[in-house]
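pasting for ref
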Amino acid sequence: MLVFGQRTETAINFTSEKSRLVFETENDLLFGSDNYYTAGLALSCTADNLKKTPAQLILKPNRSEYFSFSGFGFQQRIFTPYSIDEPNSIENDRPYSAYLLVTNFAVLINPTKNLRLSNEIGIGLMGQSAGGKEVQTSIHKLIGSVAPVGWDNQLENTFLIDYQFRIEKGFFNNWTANHFVPFFATRIGTLTDLVQIGLITKWGNKNNYLVNVTTPIELNKKLIWEWLFEANLQGVFYDATLEGGLFNDDLNSLTKDEIISRQYQFRTGVNLYYKKFSFRYMIKFNSTDFNSAVIHRYASVNIGLAF
């Protein structure tokens, strides 16, 4: 299961700041494994003086009704088979693959309608040029772990273009709209094609989920915390990290018959905000995405600084 919509979720924009820089790392090391989606790094920056980025132009906000912000990001994602100590290609297992994306995202929020829209445009590449072998090998050497030996079998280089769209809509009264939020999302391009539906619930001392805005006085007074749980179901029609590039004939890729199109994910964690700092810790459980796979778990840490 690919990482979905991270930039638009963590681009929190308080009224007390001009810009926010966010660093995120994901890894399955917490669970003593090093398989499937093994690691991810991302850096993003939100700025309130961005008015006409490509992502904003697609959503075309009405300034009288919507609060909006936009930003840019960079991310690397690394995938490996269940075992990384086999030098040859492993039949019926996830292939080695990695990709890089440069992204532009935008978020629109209508507090009156309890509505939040977000989208993200990405361009990049997958394959040897994405540096997955070098990054994973260096990290394993640094921590004294077993070096991965099968990267010579990784999926071939291919160009990526990616577009994500997500809508969250609270219903009924304000209490329900703040605590239980259904959503729909889609992702298309040469990286993956999928649709997703789900439900988010959040609890904390600042229950204003769809707005993510607070005043400087409120922010300085106390620590803002919230606990999150999300369950989602998605239909996957294409995944380049499993099937190879759209226009490649890759011998190490899985076939369409080996891919599981109906997938689900659960995730839970905590968000903390204090003055100019933010912190998120999340644990995620993914269902199997190909026939011989097992359920995968990993954790993410997200740190933000306003300036």
